Amino acid sequence: MLHRVRKTGSRLAAYVLGGVAALAVITPGQAQEFEGVSIDVMTFTGPQIAEPLQRRAPDFAALNGAEVNVITVPFSDLYTKLLTDWATGTNSVDAAVFAPQWMVDYVGPGFLQDITDWVAADEALQVDDIAPFFREFSQQYGGRTYLVTLDGDFQMVYYRTDVLAELGLEPPETWADYVAIAAAAHGNDLNGDGSADYGSCIAKKRNAQSYWMITSIAAGYLQSQGTSQGAFFDTDDMTPLVDNPAFEAALDVYLETTQFAPPDETNLDVGDTRALFTTGRCALTLDWGDIGTLAIDPETSQVIDKVGAVMLPGSRQVLDRDSGEMVECDSEICPHAVNGVNRAPFAAFGGWSGGINAAADDQVKRAAYAFFSYMSQPAQSNHDVTVGITGFNPYRISQFETLDNWLAAGMSETAADSYLGAIKDSLNSPNMVLDLRIPRNQAYQQVVLDTAIARLLAGEIDKAQAMQAIAAGWSELNEEEGTDAQLAFYRASIGAD
Amino acid sequence: MRQHQSFAEWIDRAAGQIMIWPAVLILLAFSIFPLLVSAYLTVTRFRLAPGGFELRYVGWLNFKKLLFGSQQYHLLGTFSALTATDWLIFALAAGTAAWLFVGAVRSGTVGTVGLIGRLIAAAVLLALLLLALAVTGDGAFPGTLVVTVFYVLAGVSVQFLLGLGLALLCAQRILGRSVFRVVFFIPLTVTPVGIAYLFRMLADVGKGPLTPLLAAFGLGEVSWAADPWSARLVVLIGDTWQWTPFLFLILLAAVENQPRDQVEAARLDGAGDWQVFRDVTWPAIAPVAATVVLIRLIEAFKIIDLPNILTNGGPGIATESLTLHAFIAWRTQDLGGSAAVGYTLLAVAVVCCVSFFHFVVRRARAHERP
Amino acid sequence: MTDHRAGLWRRLTEPKSLDRMAPLPALLTYAALIAWSVVVLFPLYWLLITSFKLPVQVNDGPDYLPFLDFQPSLHAWEYLFVTVGSDTLRPYVNSLVVALASTVLATLIGSLAAYALVRVRYRVKLGAVLAFLLILAGVVVGVLRFGIDWRVALAAGTALMLLVLLTLAPRLRTAVGNEDIQFWIISNRILPPVVVVLPIYMMFQRLGLLDTHVALIATYTAVNLPIVVWLMRDFFASIPVDLEESAQLDGASRFGIVFTIVLPLARAGLAATFLLVLILAWNEYLLALFLSTADAQTMPLLVAAQNATRGPQWWTMSALILIMIAPVIALTALLQRAIARGLIVGAVKG
What we know:
Chain B is mostly helical.
């Protein structure tokens, strides 16, 4: 990682200079606008995410005088740390870079600053360059903007181009294809070390990130009519969309892939599956954009230029919400289907974004906004997303329109085409699934959904019981929080109103 | 000068109070108040609200959910019907308890408070036994309560035996004694979070150092993490690695403090190793041993880092401990549920520790030199 | 033949003299000690080599021997000490300050209390204890449930308590003794920290002490006091009381006796207790997570933080664990001598 930073040092300087110049032109005479202002920005201990913030803070200070202190806490506890600080009124954190999924918990009680007007007045941000999904859903809540997107997160399927070529198979379009490829590749030696490798590696560890994986699989079966249809609840009465044949089909895929996986797959977190995939031990994996940059890093990868990416696979049958049955796709029920396959990319997690504490001083809030805007502006961001250590994945249209940055970062043209193509396809899909953003979404996903899936994998309960457990658990939470209130939150988050 | 004298006298007279009050005050500030606040949390629901948060009173709903409602499988487990053997075991245990209780009543030396305490202890321990029987067997799965009790019982006894054995070995006249002592002590110095990650590294099926060894035994394609008992075993191994040194260190100090003249006298009388241990060493170290086991018992009930990092409580909920259960609830804003789990732990641990204190520690101390 | 065998067996199993070990037990002893040493040391060896591995070497492992199986790299060490040097050093210094200060305080206060519990007989009126609990509960419920200002509630509670102490308490008879106090002290450690961390956080927030050394030192002193009291109690109890009695006859004060006779005699116990408490404070995670934000962050947070979005960074994590245990092991080796010496002195005097 060190090497990378140094290697790109000169290029970096050029970009920074470019950024400084660009900003100086746009905001003349305001160079030291925030003289003496100090902003405490919290995020998790990196290097990912924290590294670019720390690296660019001095440049930002030189630009307008504001001092940015990046405070880092362990990743696993960032949410509770922020919540405690803001909810108890300590307010030692002025701004934070966190997951947009947490936004709803913070917006409700008024912890987050509404930045709609600031964004509208900010030309340097080039907000129209941010892909529509992030601009209109991820940054916003109920039509108002609260966050500045710094990173684009959604899940894709990665495959080994050499393995598929050898097997004579095409990249998966449906989950059935995925399972078929996994079955064909499983047990073959994929990295030339003489030992049998695995067809598919999916992080299925409990209490980690596996609940996003099951949703990624289920998305294509559940949602066919666009983002505002939703994939978690019925938008009329908040009935959980889990106790139905579509979710069952997803569970089947989830369980089937386990047969073509490492023996300890149920104890693998994404860090583990990434290590397995980049050392060439898996034919397929399901992951965020990180694999793209990890796979071209010689310090971590043995599969340089052997990795392709596709938008999440889908299904030819989808759930008909009226009858509750699976129906074949047609132009009416699956308006966005390609080749008769309904695909629904899942914006799991949603991408690290900057939000500002509403209780901070006015000047601090403005400075914090200026910092996030600076970080997101193409001059900075278009470089940062090509560097693995930043943990930033592309989210701006200009970032996948031009290949130059990627080729400079060490990606081959084919790999860049495949990777950026998959990102572009996903981001352009009107059928993207927004992650669950209602109050206490952690309880819905990390506790109820995650535990039921883990128990299913462990054989403690069967498929039907798992689906009932999730449906019952979600309904119970709905009642605890007020079903009508949760419905309103849900509809607002996916733009169903 | 006189003033000074009387002040010194006062200090001397009040020494008993001066020595204990700082400790009591600090503990009051840091434990009673938080304890009462969290007791209040158990009957409320935490909600974020404009300007901060609110605690809505919900009565005993949190406990109801855990004991009878949607979280029953989590705390208590999934039950199966009790078999004849289960009932037999339970009847035996209940009979023994009743016999002991009648004995205590008839001895006439136990007061009312003591009898009530014994009744409570018997009820809780028997209930735990019944629960343990109900959640083992076909189609049944233990919840976090039984899993925690298992960790405590299995872990503490293994660690005590290992620690005692190592202490006895180390107390002999051997070469490099101080080196062994420092080495054996090391695991305790590693931060618990670090130990958990270390064992995750060591136990990794693909890239861990034991992989070739396992493959040689034909276990290469088997994952310990997929089977409930092997996963619990790995958690226990990590726990044992971490805590054996604690028992070792204290027991070693105790063994070396035993009256040497008595040991030598016994040896001159021709006593064997076992006799020396039974007649001299054991009575001498019993008070310290009882204390250190009690301390370890208390810490063992709070096991969290190893299951949290090794398996995150999986497969299913097989390795989840009570503290981890409370931690997960707490992390997802369920402060009331978390406090309720914490209080369940408190209740069980207090009953176990009080019983241990009364029936073991006090008896061991009866031999203490005055 | 049989005779010869029996002779050999005797030579192997019976010591030549009382202070020497026979060959066979000695062999078994060493075998057991070395086996356990391997169990203890191998994981540490694995940490050490992992800290010199590149990610790709860890992920593609297992590799056992540096230079033979893999080419060691300093990248993790360089990252920790050069790239983010001050972010590694600051928590390290914080940990040192917090652990040492809280351990000294806890050992001092706890030892005094432990000594007092062994030598002084206390009788606390049960009624007063119950009244105290009830009043405190009333204050807490008043503040949390009915929104009474906490200062008002606290003042009212104190007044009520004084009233009880002055009027009711003298008439009550049932009292709690030393053993009950001891048990109460240790019971403070039973509740898992996750349940009490929020109230403690709120307490320090009100005092404006969040993210300071003071908050962590005070908290660690409190949570480790029970351990000190309990361990030291046993060591004090094993000191013959006649030594103290004769000193008392010579006119020594209580504190004089404690500091000149008792504590030196309990040196071995003190050293062991000090070490244990230091380790507990040095390694504590959850309370540190909440009471510190930036300035006062301690090392365990940094270790845990090595598992972020990319999965555990085994190499940097291993390096961090190693630099965390280094000073503690050094101290152990140092105190080990003190423990041994303390024992010899004790043995001579006893």
